[in-house]
Design brief:
The protein has 369 residues and is an alpha/beta fold. It contains 13 helices and 11 strands. It has helices at 29-34, 48-64, 83-95, 110-122, 136-142, 180-197, 199-213, 217-237, 252-261, 270-287, 293-306, 322-330, 359-366, and strands at residues 6-10, 17-22, 41-47, 68-74, 103-108, 128-133, 147-152, 155-162, 167-171, 342-345, 351-354. Bound molecules: glycine (GLY).
Length: 369
């Protein structure tokens, strides 16, 4: 199979943009970005790890097209997604004398994308930016759809803005150097698109997931493109999450509680929490008689086959208290009028939203068997 660039369009009127997916896009960035610049001046934001691998290459391809570059490197990790990180980034942007028509580029994973997008949304009352996501998680989720923001002591992503990028370049070759555990955590979000709205895609992942995780580029391109197409379709219907966009939170309310209770640490990565959370959402759906046990079993089996955690027993360390998990869920930012909104399913590929859930059943799901 020949490797080509897939284009997924996000249909948002005058804020519409393309997501380009394919191998070696970073080395072609000068040509791919050049056409949408109002002025040949860019400001690249990256982190220490990604910058060491990819910044020089990106600068070279831009400069070869006569595009000026300035860069700012933040420490790797969530702590950069803070008011302090925002302050030093915006100071660097102003020191670089960025004008409103210049282009900001986020080169990195979710932290860099969220921080840079938010800085772009407020600098000079709003600048254009481009996402070049370098993790699978960022390619299939955080770089698409315009959610940007930072964390505060009160919680994650509570300060932010919807600010759509002008272009997303998802270079599938950069995934080759991603640690296996991070690749897997991103893969959980790929599976999410099958589970929430596309049973055929879940079947395809059951057949091809292992090979794409092992490095098959064509399969990776197809998986990223299918995920981005699913997300683009939902974002185009509901950009600001007043309805259907919340389906993208499948597994996240449970997963967020697991992450919070494990201290947002290496004990459980976000995607790993989402994987267990999705199994829990299907388990709850089965306990409510909405779908059969076989769906939960199939999802669990697939996660275990590829090496993702699928239940509470898969989290290393001391057991987690169901009441404390429930308390975290009740504080989730998706709570409306004191009721937790759940994404449940009538079967694989058929998710829906409800707040009509018996919390005793949720307790049962959160209690190890
Ligand atoms: N990550 C969920 C969303 O973008 O809506």
């Amino acid at each position: 199979m020949s490797q080509h660039i897939e284009t997924v369009s996000v249909a948002l009127g005058d804020r519409a943009y393309d997501i380009l997916i394919g191998p070696d896009l970073l080395s072609q960035a000068g040509a791919l970005i050049g056409g949408i610049l109002a002025r040949p001046k860019t400001f690249i934001v990256t982190d220490e790890n990604v910058g060491a691998q990819h910044l020089a290459g990106l600068e070279a391809t831009l400069q070869a097209r006569g595009i000026a570059t300035t860069s700012h490197t933040v420490p790797a990790g969530e702590t950069s997604k803070s008011f302090a990180g925002l302050e030093s980034l915006t100071a660097a942007m102003l020191d670089a004398r960025l004008e409103r028509r210049d282009m900001v580029i986020a080169l990195g994973g979710g932290v860099v994308g969220d921080l840079t997008g938010f800085a772009a949304s407020i600098l000079r009352r709003g600048m254009d930016f481009i996402q070049i996501p370098t993790t699978l998680l960022a390619q299939v989720d955080s770089s698409v759809g315009g959610k940007t923001g930072i964390n505060t002591p009160q919680g994650k992503n509570l300060i932010g803005a919807f600010h759509q990028p002008r272009l997303v370049l998802a270079d599938t070759s950069v995934l080759d150097t991603l640690p296996r555990r991070e690749l897997l955590a991103g893969y959980a979000e790929v599976v999410k698109y099958g589970l929430l709205g596309d049973a055929d895609f879940f079947d395809w992942l059951q057949a091809n997931g292992q090979a794409l995780l092992d490095g098959d580029q064509d399969l990776r391109i197809k998986a990223v493109a299918t995920s981005c197409r699913a997300k683009a379709g939902i974002v185009a219907q509901d950009e600001r999450e007043s309805g259907v966009r919340a389906l993208l939170n499948l597994g996240h309310t449970f997963g967020h509680a697991l992450e919070a209770e494990t201290g947002f640490s290496d004990r459980l990565l976000h995607g790993e929490g989402v994987a267990i959370g999705m199994v829990m959402a299907f388990d709850l759906s089965a306990r409510m008689g909405l779908c059969g046990d076989n769906a939960t079993a199939a999802i669990k089996r697939h996660f275990r086959t590829v090496g993702l955690p699928a239940s509470l027993d898969d989290i290393e360390g001391p057991g987690l208290d169901p009441e404390r998990l429930l308390a975290h869920m009740a504080q989730d930012k998706k709570v409306k009028d004191g009721r937790i909104t759940f994404v449940l399913a009538r079967g694989i590929g058929d998710a829906f939203l409800t707040d009509d859930v018996d919390l005793n059943l949720v307790r049962d799901v959160l209690t190890p068997s």
